[in-house]
Amino acid sequence: MSYVFDTRAQSSDLGFDALDPSFDHYVDFLRRGYWQARGFTEFRQSDLIVQVNLTALNSYTSQLVAARAAMAKWSQMLPVTFQEVFSGATDVNFGNSDTGAYFDSSTHLLNVGPTWWGGDFSIGGYGYQTFVHEIGHALGLGHGGNYNFNATFASNAQFALDSWQYSIMSYFTPVEAGLTSREYYLISPRSADVEALVRKYFMNPDGSFQQVNINTSNNTYGFGSNDGFALTSSGRLSAVGFTIHDTSGWDTLDFSGSTTGTILSLIPGAFSSVNGFDNNIDIYNGHNAYQGDYFIEVGVGSAFNDIITGNDGVNGLYGNGGDDWIRGNGGNDSLFGWTGNDSLDGSEGDDFLDGGPGDDTLYGGTGNDSLNGGVGNDAIFSSTYYGSVSSGVSTIDGGDGNDTIHANGLDTVLAGAGDDTIFGTNSYGGYVYVDAGAGSDQVGGTVNSDILIGNDGADYLYGYGGNDALYGGNGNDVLYGGLGADRYEGGAGADIFQFMNDIQANTVEAIADFTAKQDLFALSSAYIGKTYVQDTANGVFISVAVGNNYWGTMVYGTHDVSAVQQSFLYV
Asked: What are the residues whose beta carbons fall under 8 Å from the beta carbon of 67, sequence distance 6 or more?
């Protein structure tokens, strides 16, 4: 029995009261439900080596180019081979003797009239899209609902997803389906089309799936694409949608030329938005045993404000210009904000984050991360968010600018230039190493035994708990060890060694350097009358009565008891 898939005549109102929201049901309708609904046998090719005859289009160059481009696109979506023949029986006979567009399953005629859509068959337009649609019929796909000829979403849709956002076999634009606000055409089949044909040709009788390998080299999609369908910032290929089916290689989704900010997701099955259109790009998520087959590895944002999300593989994510939000998700990722005030979140894995120029916010997440703020006043968190705790070991480089840094665990902090504030109080159980760099910095340690280095500038170092080592470096510094038996070295400048109410009995601390009439000892006023100074073989020893016991600190490098006493400052 002949069945013609047509787009020419009038529709009927099928009167559906509720739309099925299921993607799975929609796919099965494309695959076989359409024929069941209309009383026909499911159509398919005997295999995916499809013989085609294009001789009827030889005098119509634009149609010939469009037909070949449409077949090439199908071959980029599925392992289907189109073999051109010039006589004899074929699987698909291209023609244009009729004004409409359809595929006849009995004669295998695929007709697209030469004046269809004004005779414009350039890639990115509806004429080209029609060739892709009709080839879909030739491979065995039905429409997305029980309609043929013209139809409207309001009257004829059975499935909530029945639009070009999910299938090129649909009659309905995403705007008509209420999914987007701007119209675009398609340059490829969509995920529901690919899934329907994978089920038709690659599903075993027991419901398992054969391995499907497609686009296995290193490919770029979007701007700068090497697939022959590159996005553009203007013209036909700026207002299009497409689906990516890629199972191997080191691949890139490039939105660098977008005319607006983008949403770029490398998660298989997720949608992305580019050139001001909503959800016009997606990545097919198939059935290969290793789900990582469907990972795109690199995402490149635009010159505007982007939202970029990685997948669970190893990703390189680049914000380019604008104030970007970038999240790595699983895997050992590299995130680059570049210019703009960016927010970078490594999430799981051992990640590298570089904010670049601008006032950036960096979150390392779990794992052993490297975080570089770059130029600008940055906020850097070793963990996922402020106040959270990470078991990872991070290396943090604040770069230039006045940064705020929250360290964790066994982190190493190189604050860089600028007046920085460094917190290490969210420790997971290890010490932090902090080199505050140039500038007048404020540094806080953890409950563990930390190493805090002020370096240049007038710094404030607070060890908090543990047996800390505090090095002031150049400048007039304040060194406050907090709890524990701490070691102090003020370095050059007029330094203050601070001992408050949290000194502990039976604890001896050490001060490696002291300059009379320059350095001061700041003690709690509670120690007035309880402080004692005496000379020893190693230097001057200061002790304070704490209950029935004593706390003490050894001041090395001097035996001048009077000078030490004159340097006391009770606060």
From this structure: 54, 57, 94, 112, 131
- Contacting residues for 411 by C-beta, under 8 A, at least 6 apart: 382, 393, 394, 395, 396, 424, 432, 433
- Crossing angle of helices 61-77 and 126-139, rounded to 10°: 50
The reported pTM is 0.91
DSSP state of 43: P
Query: Which residues are paired to 569 by β-bridges?
Result: 522
Query: Residue 293 and residue 521: Cα distance in Å, rounded?
Result: 64
Taking only the tens place, the pLDDT of each residue in 326-381 is 999 999 999 999 999 999 999 999 999 999 999 999 999 988 999 999 999 999 99
Closest by CA to 484, choosing from 462, 508, 500, is 508
**What does the pLDDT read at residue 425?**
63
Distance CA 543, CA 555 (A): 11
d(CA 417, CA 470): 19
Q: Which two tokens stand for residue 181?
A: 């606000």
Let me know: does 448 contact 431? Beta carbons within 8 Å.
yes
Which phi and psi (to 5°) does residue 404 adopt?
Answer: -115, 120
How confident is the model over 367-419, as pLDDT tens digits? 899 999 999 999 999 876 544 455 568 899 999 999 999 988 788 999 989 99
CA distances from 234 to 252, 257, 259, 330 (A): 21, 10, 8, 35
Where does 123-270 show beta strands of DSSP type E? 185-186, 220-222, 240-244, 252-254, 263-265
- How many whole angstroms from its chain centre is CA 526? 55
Q: What CA–CA distance (Å, rounded) separates 338 from 262?
A: 16
Contacts of 56 (CB under 8 A, 6+ apart): 93, 94, 95, 96, 97
Measure the CA–CA gap between 217 and 231, rounded to whole angstroms. 20
The residue among 94, 113, 114 whose CA lies nearest residue 104 is 94
Summarised one tens digit per residue, pLDDT across range 72-123 is 999 999 999 999 999 988 999 999 999 999 999 999 999 999 999 999 999 9
Report whether 533 contacts 542 (CB < 8 A). yes
Q: What letters, b where the CB count within 10 A reaches 16 and e where it falls short, cover 305-326? A: bbbbbbbbbbbbbbbbbbbbbb
* Paired tokens of 2: 């002949």
Residue 522's nearest CA partner among 549, 538, 503 is 503
DSSP label at 527?
G
Per-residue burial over 2-16, b if 16 or more Cβ lie within 10 Å, else e, is ebbbbbeeeeeeeee
Assign 228 a pLDDT band (cuts: 50, 70, 90).
confident
Q: Determine the topology of domain 4-197 in CATH.
A: Collagenase (Catalytic Domain) (3.40.390)
- Give the DSSP per-residue string, 530-555: SEEEEE-SSEEEEEEEETTEEEEEEE
- Ordered by start, the domain boundaries in the chain are 4-197
Annotate 250-264 with b (16+ C-beta within 10 A) or e (fewer). ebbbbbbbbbbbbbb
Is 83 strand, coil or helix? strand
